[in-house]
UniProtKB/TrEMBL annotation:
InterPro entries with a match to the protein in the record: N-reg_PII, N-reg_PII-like_a/b, N-reg_PII/ATP_PRibTrfase_C, N-reg_PII_CS
Protein origin, superkingdom: Bacteria
Protein name (Swiss-Prot/TrEMBL): P-II family nitrogen regulator
Family note: Belongs to the P(II) protein family.
Gene3D superfamilies cross-referenced by the UniProt entry: 3.30.70.120
PROSITE patterns noted in UniProt: PII_GLNB_CTER, PII_GLNB_DOM
Protein species of origin: Robiginitalea marina
């Protein structure tokens, strides 16, 4: 099993969620987060300068089977992409075990 962690633009969340549901990723967790990016310049909107050093994003955590990893990552890359600086990041790590508390199922059955 793999854990996929994605940091995406908040404005792309609904599109990403629909795309994940379309490939049958029906469970994931998410949080609103603030991060610090590489871009140091500010933006001016209606005469007011806004700092871009603190970036509002959404953080998703998805656990999938090894066979489903590539499809999940490709879906995230396609649906979260704008082509602009700040589109986000995806991290993949190994999950040693998973358990469903209610039924005590473990492994892939524990997350499916």
């Amino acid at each position: 099993m793999k854990k996929v962690e994605a940091i995406i633009r908040k404005s792309k969340f609904d599109e990403v969620k629909k795309a994940l549901h379309a490939i049958e990723v029906n469970f994931f967790s998410y949080w609103d987060v603030t991060g610090v990016g590489n871009e140091k310049q500010g933006h001016i909107y209606r005469g007011i300068s806004y700092s871009t050093s603190d970036i509002q994003r959404r953080y998703l955590v998805i656990v999938v089977s090894d066979e489903f990893l590539e499809r999940t990552v490709e879906t995230l890359l396609d649906s979260a992409h704008t082509g602009n600086v700040g589109d986000g990041k995806i991290f993949v790590s190994e999950v040693l075990e998973a358990y469903r508390i209610r039924t005590r199922e473990n492994g892939y059955e524990g997350i499916n």
